Amino acid sequence: MTWKHxxxxxPLARQTIRLWRKVLPKRAPLIIEHMEVDLIFSRLxxxxxLQIIDVGAHHGEFLDIFxxxxxxxxxxxxxxxxxxxxxxxxxxxxxxxxxxRVQVCEVALSDVSGPKTFYAGSxxxxxxxxxxxxxxxxxxxxxxxxxxxxxxxxxDLFARYQIAPNLTWDLIKVDTEGHDLNVLRSMCAARVxxxxxxxxxxxxxxxxxxxxxxxxxxxxxxxxxxxRSGIATTFIGEYQTLEQxxxxxxxxxxxxxxLVAFRAAV
Length: 266
Hints:
By secondary structure, the chain is of the alpha/beta class. The chain has a single domain, classed as Vaccinia Virus protein VP39 (Rossmann fold), CATH 3.40.50.150. The protein has helices at residues 3-8, 11-23, 34-42, 61-68, 84-96, 133-136, 154-160, 180-189, 206-216, 242-250, and strands spanning 49-55, 74-80, 100-105, 108-109, 114-120, 127-128, 145-152, 171-174, 196-201, 220-228, 233-238, 256-263. The strands form two sheets. The protein has an eight-stranded mixed β-sheet, with helices on both faces. A four-stranded mixed β-sheet has the order 4-7-5-6. Strand 10 (220-228) and strand 11 form a beta hairpin. The protein is globular and about 45 Å long.
């Protein structure tokens, strides 16, 4: 038995280990979305502080990436997350950040302000306001709980949390389990146009084409696809057509993924 194992047998040491495990949030593997972040940050190397909004912040996986990223940026991040179980982990993680100034907003975003029904799955961190997900992913929603959660538009979010609406945003990431397009409509309606937008490629591929059309109408002119099958992420390349995504899905290369869009200089 090594000295580390012997130390762990001491009563005080066991209590300290148990307490530390409760306080320290679990960190997600950085392989999930760091490739997308790398691409975006490669275009922002001249800036010292990046302004970011993380919609659907979950457990703060983006904060993990920022804290460990091999650059010299500081970060100011608005984390938007409405689910109580996730907020506990997110707030604990935010307190440990050294490079990132975090503001947590306990609310959901949509294109219309008001209460909305969400469905919490059997996995405690998976929830959606898209009813179809209960039938699309029956393994995760065997016994869903319904929760009424207040939603705000971007304009109302900024007003409630006293966020300056005219800030130059570098990145807005949206991961809202089937509701991304509604959130992006709210973003555009509020005239909030970050340098880069990152949104989820989920079950409904047609919504990706709608998302691109919406962003194109607001001067976004570069679109890149990142595919994921399981955990590993693959850089697919520049978005071409909706048929491209259907072919990738049929080949098993795009179970899920992300779309990264860059706005033209205007």
